[in-house]
Amino acid sequence: GENVEQHPSTLSVQEGDSAVIKCTYSDSASNYFPWYKQELGKRPQLIIDIRSNVGEKKDQRIAVTLNKTAKHFSLHITETQPEDSAVYFCAAGTNQAGTALIFGKGTTLSVSS
Amino acid sequence: ETGVTQTPRHLVMGMTNKKSLKCEQHLGHNAMYWYKQSAKKPLELMFVYNFKEQTENNSVPSRFSPECPNSSHLFLHLHTLQPEDSALYLCASSQASSANTEAFFGQGTRLTVV
Q: Are A40 and A107 in contact (CB under 8 A)?
């Protein structure tokens, strides 16, 4: 089955700096790669996703890149703000019926002002 | 958002008790999932239901028993749990047959086994 590795487990940056979180996956059949943000005491929520037919996707300060050959994808947050502090999870999956997203272990991002 | 609702939000139970967690989704999705979130293994997949049929049981102990009576409701029946089962249990749903496979999560049930 799919295995998703995520690094680093914790990341501390100064406000305004960039943050990068990296993930690798094992199943070449995976074609959907979402990123979820979980604030303290709240549910995980999708912030951006990318599909295997695209190499990069950007939404304001957040971008995701995908290297399907190397089976890795990354989340980039620019101009970080204190409200970006949260746990970020990457995941991999397919659009096949009956399959579920497999998540990485999460990265705790702390943005200090 | 109230697309995926879980009850109760908090549950304390003894090791000999039997309890059930409930999840309800109002998004018209046809797939539902149970995840366990703990410090050791964040977002660990437990069960997958697709069109009310269980399609995956991720080596979960039999003291956890899922039930999916229809595509909108999912239960997790608990009996003779262990203290190490204390965790946040998250339900999620998605539209499995669509190209958009975003999973929507409920708020979770914080379970404490004493």
A: no
